[in-house]
Design brief:
The chain is of the alpha+beta class and 185 residues long. It contains five helices and four strands. It has two domains: 4-48 and 149-184, Alpha-Beta Plaits (2-Layer Sandwich); 54-128, no CATH class.
Length: 185
């Protein structure tokens, strides 16, 4: 026998899912989500979602990249260390240019900034989205493929503190969905 994981409701329009999301948030549910075939403008505020933390990962990656680039060029151009790689450990003067100048270090630092920012963004997204999550009970719902075409779904999970099967079903019924089903794990 399959374990019940929550309720899923099907809606026909973006306005319906927006109204339903607002009412679910106002009712105080915490463990719920929506599935839409395209981004719906204003749905994040209706769901009560905060701004993503991914940009913070990105800025940390960018600062690390530019710092790494500048330090690398400063070390290779202006250091007088004999690491066994260079025979004498002498600084190398090329074309009368200074040993270190941010103008000459900029291309390397710029590229490392972009590279580190991209990696930090991807890693941050994976961490914050709890990826890879290869399975979710919504994927077992027969009609979920319509969520990639023209239908909108709202799912309230049974792990929500307010979830009670009958009360939640009655609440969702008041949102006027076209269909309500139980999710199975």
């Amino acid at each position: 026998m399959a374990k019940k994981c929550g309720l899923i409701a099907k809606f026909d329009s973006p306005a319906d899912i927006m109204n339903a999301a607002r009412k679910v948030r106002e009712a105080g549910f915490k463990q719920w989500d929506v599935v839409t075939p395209f981004p719906v403008h204003g749905l994040d505020p209706a769901m009560g979602l905060k701004r993503s933390l991914v940009p913070r990962f990105t800025i940390i990656g960018g600062i690390t990249g530019i710092t790494t680039g500048m330090l690398m060029i400063a070390f290779t151009g202006a250091s007088d260390l004999d690491l066994g790689i260079l025979s004498e450990g002498y600084k190398l003067i090329v074309g009368g240019k200074p040993f270190f100048s941010p103008h000459f270090a900029f291309p390397v630092a710029y590229e490392l900034t972009i590279l580190f920012s991209a990696f930090a963004s991807i890693i941050g997204m994976f961490i914050l989205n709890k990826l890879p999550m290869h399975y979710h009970p919504v994927l077992k719902y027969d009609d979920i493929a319509q969520g990639t075409d023209d239908k909108f779904f709202l799912c309230i999970e049974k792990d929500d503190p307010q979830f009670d099967l009958e009360k939640t079903r009655a609440f969702i019924q008041g949102l006027k969905p076209t269909d309500i089903s139980e999710l199975e794990d």
